Amino acid sequence: MADTSRTEPGLGWNEMPRAKAAKSNLTGSDFRLWSIAYRVLDMEGHTDLTQGHLSIRDPNGRGFWMKRTGIAFFEIKGRKDFVLVDLDGNRLEGKGVHGEWPIHAEIFRSRPDVNAVGHTHPFYASTFSASREPLRAVAHEASNLNGAVTRYVGTSNLIDTPKLGREVAEALGPAPAVLMKNHGITFCGPSVEECVLAGIFLERACHAQLVIGASGFAWDYTGEPEMREKYKTVMTPAFIRNSWEFYVRKLARREAGIAV
Amino acid sequence: MADTSRTEPGLGWNEMPRAKAAKSNLTGSDFRLWSIAYRVLDMEGHTDLTQGHLSIRDPNGRGFWMKRTGIAFFEIKGRKDFVLVDLDGNRLEGKGVHGEWPIHAEIFRSRPDVNAVGHTHPFYASTFSASREPLRAVAHEASNLNGAVTRYVGTSNLIDTPKLGREVAEALGPAPAVLMKNHGITFCGPSVEECVLAGIFLERACHAQLVIGASGFAWDYTGEPEMREKYKTVMTPAFIRNSWEFYVRKLARREAGIAV
Amino acid sequence: MADTSRTEPGLGWNEMPRAKAAKSNLTGSDFRLWSIAYRVLDMEGHTDLTQGHLSIRDPNGRGFWMKRTGIAFFEIKGRKDFVLVDLDGNRLEGKGVHGEWPIHAEIFRSRPDVNAVGHTHPFYASTFSASREPLRAVAHEASNLNGAVTRYVGTSNLIDTPKLGREVAEALGPAPAVLMKNHGITFCGPSVEECVLAGIFLERACHAQLVIGASGFAWDYTGEPEMREKYKTVMTPAFIRNSWEFYVRKLARREAGIAV
Amino acid sequence: MADTSRTEPGLGWNEMPRAKAAKSNLTGSDFRLWSIAYRVLDMEGHTDLTQGHLSIRDPNGRGFWMKRTGIAFFEIKGRKDFVLVDLDGNRLEGKGVHGEWPIHAEIFRSRPDVNAVGHTHPFYASTFSASREPLRAVAHEASNLNGAVTRYVGTSNLIDTPKLGREVAEALGPAPAVLMKNHGITFCGPSVEECVLAGIFLERACHAQLVIGASGFAWDYTGEPEMREKYKTVMTPAFIRNSWEFYVRKLARREAGIAV
């Protein structure tokens, strides 16, 4: 019952056009955007108690911002809900640093292309993390991740030391997301928007694969090289912008009490 | 893992009584009806970001109307949300033509009996599209489609050229709907109402087949000739009208904040 | 793929204490109760378009009352929504008789202990109807039906003739409910309250059996004679009253916009 | 199809730090807290008609408090909704004692470390109770129970005698929860808060295991000794407090009509 390989190599999600990274416009005043990102993740099933966190690289190079401990994703509203932590785990602003800060620190250290990192326990992806099955492109969502999702099987315990953080970063490699065995997922992007989309796509892709696997029917998935083509066709800057703005408007409706 | 056949022959859904096609009363002022059709599809699980589209043949023969890019099904309210496109993809009115317009153009070209076409990514039908299983009449919904749902397995990528559009139209054949492998579904009807019902029935039928397949129990489905008889018994003009009006009233309740 | 047996014998659900039948207090002014019964069924997943119907034996012996055609379960509010039909299908009051009136007529004819009959298409029970598996007491719900649910496999088409109605009544036998292959369910009771509870228990029982079947795990069910003992212990008049009143209050909350 | 062993030994959930038990601050004025506990369980899927109950050991040693019969979890608001029962089933305050009071009495008698006991029928745990599969740590939730969930297979009927209550208490052993075959679950804790969390974690853990089991994919779980380490790392007093307070705030949002 032991997995022998700790990771599967990513297929190049970071080949996405440079323009997208440039679109990331992190500023000290962007707490509103980052708060919306948390609440969008909540809306899409990523809340698990007060656990999980989304971090954004500090535009001034001091480390990264993440929500403080003790509050839930749906409660994040602004600056007072964030702490600033440097890559060695020193708290620079705010109070209440999650013990799993090393996930974020080590990914920011090893991935200069990444400006936002999420770690959550959504139901289907956390359940799928228990399987040994590669994530397959059952429908669009996994293709949107370029088939590049890896696995971390080192421990199912909290990632609360730099050593464990480095293991997760290594398992992630150049990919947009890593499934963490019997634990949850970590996902990232060149911007907070793309990071959130990666988390949402992964949860939906895992749900689809669990359902088609369960069906007992023979099934197929989008393989190479079609997936690489599809990724390039679909994941344009316009698609990413439209998709993000879709979630922002959907959230506004939800928060206004409109059925979504 | 390759499918060798690209389509399965339809069983004659377009044998439906002519009276129904005549009931389609498309006029230039019908944007309100078409907007409701989009919002009904949203209510029934057909929203995927700002992707997917429903088109209606222009009553004046200039092509077809579909929602513009960048907005979601639940946001379609009236004329400003639509574009008019001709069968060669030329934009005649409005702004923001979806890249997959050829799905609609080629079906309108090859199916004079069709006045509305939908292309969406609902969760269960998109997941079932990955299987190689014929859609079976587990319950009423698939019977309502006359067992005539086909498969398109040419690509899981966007259908963004006339050549690909023709492939999908060919795979659809005379059927009311086609499952698009690892992608989603396309459905159509002699009226916008029947088109929307076909999409709703297909999503529910796929859900039922995935659940009964997963159960591990031996199971049966309505086969020929019983299904053909059942289709004729159930799919009367009165049933279609009652079903459409049901969704319109259900939508009104939902939009008024009443639990549905 | 043909089923050879059309029914499985019931285990004696009608052995329930006489006191319960006596509790049924049908009066001509009870349209409010009957409307609530429809809306409770809607709340618990029994709405399928404007299809399905619940009937109550006329206290004056003229036949039975059921909702009229063209409206949904959630829309039933009072006398104007009902029609009175005699056991030969003659309309005595109101307008719009469902074509499947023979289900009700033939059960009322053959079952003097029954004062209410429901026929619906809830998702899980309709899906489970496709299986050849006996309903098993995975949890309390199936025990509450005394393991007495039968199957009708004569046709999956509408039951719109007295002959078909008699077939369904025969398949039902002395049971509280019958699964109708590739179609839905019919359920009944000595009172409208017990009839509604039977429908709700059956949908939940089918859901549980589909889920445990799908799990791939070895599983057990409550068998005889334990189930018979359990049925007697649980299904007391107080339990039936408490359960019905629970749904009435839950419905009141839902209709007041309170999350349920 | 018979289970030969009635229990599986617990792994030491009651090894939790003494500080946590001390945190339990039961007072005669705590009906508001206990009512919230009922409504949190309702929010998290533990309502089944007016069945099920949560009990709290009387701080003055007279027995335990539990909801009265005939009302649902979402209706519990204060003192008038509770009854006080001694360990022999004598009613000391209030009216309407649930027939299954012996579950609570016998666990309070045999487990001095326990100050609250819940017995409910949540959908996934009740369904999983039918399996013979040990609960496995698919994700965090089962780890939070320290892999210590046992099984009771003596009867699926009501536990309405001291003898049956003792059987359940014996099957529970030193564990935080016991799966009751074809019936439901019983869970407990040193405080009402921990008891409620145990019930919530168990329902979610059963859901995850049913889904991964159904997937047909090879899967792994957190085994010993990693789970023991993980339990110690995660289940700190701060985590328990944060998790409980999360549910209290989530409930407040729900009761204010905010989407959760």
Question: Any overview of this molecule?
Answer:
Four copies of one chain form a homotetramer. Chain A has 260 residues and is of the alpha+beta class. Chain A is 40% helix and 13% strand. Chain A is built from nine helices and eight strands. Chain A has helices at 18-23, 31-43, 101-110, 123-128, 140-144, 162-172, 192-215, 226-234, 237-255, and strands at 53-57, 64-67, 82-85, 91-93, 116-120, 150-152, 177-180, 184-189. Chain A has an eight-stranded mixed β-sheet with strand order 4-3-2-1-5-8-7-6, with helices on both faces. In chain A, strand 1 (53-57) and strand 2 (64-67) form a beta hairpin. In chain A, helix 2 (31-43) runs parallel beside helix 7 (192-215), helix 3 crosses helix 6 (162-172) and helix 7 packs across helix 9. The longest helix of chain A is centred in the last third of the chain and has 24 residues, at 192-215. Chain A is globular and about 55 Å long. Mean pLDDT of chain A is 90; it is low at 1-26. The A-D interface holds A 1, 3, 48-51, 69-70, 72, 74-75, 121, 123-124, 126-133, 153, 155-158, 160, 181-184, 209-210, 213-214, 216, 254-255, 257, 260 and D 137-140, 143, 204, 207-208, 211-212, 214-223, 226, 229-230, 233-234, 242-243, 245-246, 249-250, 253, 257-260.
